[in-house]
Fold each of these.
Amino acid sequence: MTSSPFAPSARSAVAPFEVMDVLATVARMRAEGREVISLCAGEPSQGAPSAVHAAAARTHAEQRSLGYTPALGIAPLRAAIAGHYARWYGLDLDPSEVAVTTGSSGGFVLAFLAAFDHGDRVALAQPGYPAYRNILASLGCEVVDIETGPAERYQPTVAQLEAAHAQAPLAGLVLASPANPTGTMVDRGELTAIAAWCSAHGVRLVSDEIYHGVTYADPASPDAKGVCAREIDEHAIVVSSFSKYWGMTGWRLGWLLVPQDLRAAVDALAGNIALCPPAGAQEAAVAAFTEESYAQGEAARLDFARAREVLLEHAPELGWGAAAPADGAFYYWAELGDQLAGFADAREYASALLEATGVAVTPGGDFDPVVGSRCVRLSLAAGPDAIAEALDRIITWQASRR
Ligand SMILES: Cc1ncc(COP(=O)(O)O)c(C=O)c1O
């Protein structure tokens, strides 16, 4: 092969994920016939609701043409999503406010392109979901890290935003509640304060609500499913997805609630970038809003809640450091504390743990370039029994190293 006179663009220089090494080792061990408990999954295990599967089967059996749909999605799905906001949040939305996207990932690209210009400063909580920073950076935005920890419950505060804005004006803030990897949520009071600060300073709020519904407060309490930023700020962009509550990761469907001032831009961008979200998945997803489908989402939530209970009950025996409260989503984020002794970083700890015990955890570097090297993320998606067994193995292994 001759050497290429070309090179990848500077903007595509996205850091590779640390978890890839762990996943490669998991695959190798399984191929060797070893049993592995993976607590790395960022997806729920229950799969799509049965009504969605049935609708997909019907669509294919009838051999519907499944051509391009309107760029922002088919009308019945946009209406069904608007109806979901009435059901969960008491919000009366017009379906024209809903843009169906190729997963929330596709929604982020549209939202960032529509809202921000090259060079705009956009604030993010660290630790946080790595795609925000990587997409923003590759679009030419300046990522402004807001370091959060136990003192802030791992969510940005108005005082921190104020300080970042004083250095140079911010154009945007991406907020996730529940967040990945910490699972923390902002309550109505905090969200109201943050949204008011954003409005007063011309900062566009982008609210990632894809884990709404996967939450552990008493379901009867107000705001148990999460507070929707659209209730508070009509200029906020809300990002959501079928991937988590409905367990439909591979169907690649999400949505945006697009404020009036961005609708034409999002429509034009969506048509150019993807033409439309997947047609078959859209047809099927209308059935995600039936009573039966909501009941299945609730059953999955209860399963995560059981796994979370097991984890929180035994967490003190791990002897780790500070941990996030896991209000929602299906993650547990913790500092390794004294258990990191003898290892260069969490990556080395995770790889030794995996080889010795067959338990895979995600090292934290992907989520936080500063403190992540001392942290790990555990996913509850493996279920309560697997969590109990994994914790037992970790505790025994750590004790054997002393
Ligand atoms: C916080 C957060 N936002 C967005 C996504 C993207 O999900 P999807 O594109 O499947 O909707 C993920 C995936 O794990 C996530 O954790």
Amino acid sequence: MQMTIHSLEEKVLEVLKEVHDPEINTVSIIDLGMVEEINVQGRVVNIKILPTFLGCPALDLIKKNIETTVEAIKEVEEVKVEFIYHPSWTSDRISEAGRSGLKAFGIAPPPRLMDTDGSWHVDCPYCGSTYVTMENIFGPTACRSILYCKNCKNPFEAMKPISTLM
Ligand SMILES: [Zn+2]
């Protein structure tokens, strides 16, 4: 029995790799570090998700996508998706694959280190230059900023760093 339960959890994990942020289709919720827990009780799957950026409109859609995707597994009878806020999601949870997925989408991954004054720096996702300016701190959503690369002259988006220290 233990073996069966274990493999269903693995199946759930496997299909969750196909659930993407609706706005950034190159990055899965696994790579974003959003999935905190997968718990299988018989045929009921409980999934705990850490919301990423507060104010991002995609959460309901992500929840719906998780439910649809996991319910498609034939052993699964019910899926419960819960958003939890502890531990808090931080941009450090994004995996290496997630960081390259963001780059492939033209979004600079959030910087890992911040200056003590709270400012942050990103490299251009196109040419890797550090010579970028913060063109407009208000991007299309609360979680992204528009920056401008002075080296290759491309505007690009950057994900804001979110840390529990902020
Ligand atoms: Zn550039």
